[in-house]
């Protein structure tokens, strides 16, 4: 039978999410006419520094930062914490490199999606369609994976069946995203970010206390497994492998549409500056805290076979059920805040990049607002239904989702802003070869010089972008003026 | 501020950001592998952590946050996002 004490804090918390959606919805329906899309899909570009920082890092941190990563750290030790810390600059590099450029451009062209920026920059239908398809497919697979992870976690911790967890938080996410739009997504992300921080603090100190102090735990760890104290985990984490994470979860994060879209939604320069600082502090704290919990937990609760079960098992061991309920809200928050951002951007892609762009320019604004709500809801429900018994194909595609999005979007996004010569031919070639190369290298398990597949992928797609840009037509005057003038 | 000036500022800030990124990488790498590549029995400890881990991951995190604060407050310019 399930544990009711764990569920209560969780329900309270989910109710709060729904209340935020209700409030955001009021703002959205008051925004009549043309402003609706700007409100529903990007929150009227009104985010302040704190909300911007939190929504950026909450979107970025997913099930893997709370469950998967710490699970590996449990097995391998401090070397995996070292790897996780590569993600500290994620927030400031995204905002510092793309933030102000995106803010200016998106206001000029009224963009609410990354694809719209690509359309304005490259003026190519092929780029628009390819990027829309990439977003929809990779996002769907990733959302399902997050839902599955969340429901499994719920099952492990509360003892209630898989489907109960899926319904409780799955439906909550779908409702608050569909009803409240981007504003609700950003605000709930901010709260979810705070929940993640507190969850990490609670669990961290509980682990230290249970283990009789940090020095005591480190000493035991040295007795049990001295390799867990080394940066390479006694050879298990080779240097070329860990260094390639500076691309995978470092520099190439500049390509992820779900985080880069946030650069279109903030209010002013000051918000951006503050978000760079706050975001870095918070993301570093979460990564350090959660992964250390994995390492220290291996002393307190040894012999957990499945890495993914490490954090839930440690939690139940060291925390009182009510606190455990609050803690479990942490990873669920990480999951929901990733899914909501992908859901709203998928809906924006369908409505703005495909439907309005190709379907018809004369759709009444009332119809658009109705369609936007429905598209988000229907998309959410499809993802929900597929998560009940995930199709193998989508589970498989999810293996490529994170790197695949980077492979597709990194250079077209980045060089579109910083290289005048970059054009449609380059962007198209870069996206196609990037995705193809990433799939090929991953399936064939190509380990070039011992590095992760993303490294050769990113090099090849860069080369493709440069070659394509020199072969293709020069950009017209208007584009140059809009982006570089 | 015209568009040319704005773009110049934006390019400069992007370079500063990449510079900070490179700095954090070097710090992370130098301490982790400079101090960590030896027998665990020879490790010294700072606040309960092996020293390589303390300097690379904990102090490195604090240093980048402080540096970022100073750099952003000092060098980043408030740019108006709307057209004149």
Automatic annotation (TrEMBL), chain A:
TM helices/strands, residue ranges: 6-22, 42-60, 80-98, 126-148, 160-179, 186-208, 236-256, 277-302, 322-351, 371-388, 394-417, 424-441, 453-472
* Keywords assigned: Cell membrane, Membrane, Transmembrane, Transmembrane helix, Transport
Q: Kindly state one GO CC term assigned in the UniProt record.
A: plasma membrane
At the top level of its lineage, which domain of life is listed?
Bacteria
GO term, biological process aspect, one: sodium ion export across plasma membrane
Q: Name one GO molecular function term.
A: sodium ion transmembrane transporter activity
Q: Which Pfam family would be a valid example here?
A: SSF
Record flagged with keyword Ribosomal protein = no
This chain belongs to the protein called Sodium/pantothenate symporter
TrEMBL record, chain B:
What are the alphabetically sorted keywords of the record? Membrane, Transmembrane, Transmembrane helix
Q: Which spans are transmembrane here?
A: 14-32, 52-72
Q: Pfam families from the entry? A: DUF997
**Superkingdom assignment:** Bacteria
Output this protein's name.
Answer: Uncharacterized membrane protein YhdT
Q: Which organism is this entry from?
A: Paramaledivibacter caminithermalis (strain DSM 15212 / CIP 107654 / DViRD3)
């Amino acid at each position: 039978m399930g544990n009711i004490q764990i569920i209560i804090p969780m329900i309270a918390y989910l109710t709060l999410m729904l209340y935020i959606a209700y409030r955001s919805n009021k703002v959205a329906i008051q925004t009549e006419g043309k402003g609706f899309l700007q409100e529903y899909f990007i929150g009227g570009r009104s985010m302040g520094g704190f909300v911007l920082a939190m929504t950026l890092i909450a979107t970025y941190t997913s099930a893997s930062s709370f469950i998967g990563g710490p699970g590996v750290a449990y097995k391998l030790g401090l070397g995996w914490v070292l790897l996780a810390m590569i993600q500290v600059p994620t927030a400031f590099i995204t905002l510092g490199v793309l933030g102000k450029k995106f803010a200016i451009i998106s206001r000029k062209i009224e963009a609410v999606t990354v694809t719209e920026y690509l359309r304005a920059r490259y003026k190519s239908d092929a780029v628009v369609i390819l990027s829309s398809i990439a977003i929809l497919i990779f996002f769907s697979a990733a959302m399902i994976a997050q839902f599955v992870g969340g429901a499994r976690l719920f099952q492990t911790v509360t003892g209630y069946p898989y489907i109960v967890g899926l319904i409780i938080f799955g439906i909550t996410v779908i409702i608050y995203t569909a009803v409240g739009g981007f504003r609700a997504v950003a605000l709930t992300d901010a709260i979810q970010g705070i929940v993640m921080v507190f969850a990490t603090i609670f669990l961290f100190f509980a682990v230290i206390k249970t283990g009789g102090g940090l020095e005591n735990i480190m000493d035991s760890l040295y007795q049990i497994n001295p390799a867990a104290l080394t940066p390479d985990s006694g050879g298990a984490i080779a240097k070329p492998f860990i260094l390639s994470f500076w691309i995978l979860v470092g520099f190439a994060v500049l390509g992820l549409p779900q985080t880069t879209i946030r650069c279109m939604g903030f209010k002013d320069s000051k918000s951006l500056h503050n978000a760079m600082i706050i975001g870095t502090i918070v993301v570093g704290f979460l990564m350090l805290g959660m992964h250390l919990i994995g390492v220290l937990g291996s002393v307190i609760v040894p012999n957990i076979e499945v890495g993914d079960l490490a954090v839930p098992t440690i939690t139940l061991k060291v925390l009182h059920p009510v606190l455990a309920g609050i803690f479990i809200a942490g990873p669920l928050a990480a999951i929901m805040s990733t899914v909501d951002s992908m859901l709203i951007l998928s809906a924006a892609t369908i409505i703005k990049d495909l439907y309005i762009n190709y379907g018809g320019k004369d759709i009444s604004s009332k119809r658009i607002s109705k369609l936007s709500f429905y598209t988000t809801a229907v998309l959410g429900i499809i993802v929900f239904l597929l998560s009940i018994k995930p199709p193998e194909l989508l589970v498989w595609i999810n293996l490529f989702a994170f790197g695949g999005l980077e492979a597709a979007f990194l250079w077209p996004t980045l060089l579109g802003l910083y290289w005048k010569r970059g054009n449609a031919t380059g962007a198209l070639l870069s996206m196609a070869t990037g995705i193809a190369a990433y799939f090929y290298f991953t399936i064939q398990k190509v380990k070039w010089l011992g590095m992760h597949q993303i490294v050769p992928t990113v090099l090849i797609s860069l080369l493709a972008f440069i070659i394509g840009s020199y072969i293709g037509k020069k950009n017209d005057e208007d584009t140059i003026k809009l982006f570089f003038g | 501020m015209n568009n040319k000036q704005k773009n110049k500022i934006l390019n400069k800030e992007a370079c500063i950001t990449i510079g900070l990124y490179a700095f954090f990488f070097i710090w992370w790498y130098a301490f982790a592998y400079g101090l960590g590549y030896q027998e665990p029995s020879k490790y010294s400890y700072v606040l309960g952590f092996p020293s390589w881990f303390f300097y690379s991951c904990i102090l490195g995190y604090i240093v980048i946050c402080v540096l970022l604060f100073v750099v952003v407050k000092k060098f980043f310019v408030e740019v108006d996002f709307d057209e004149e």
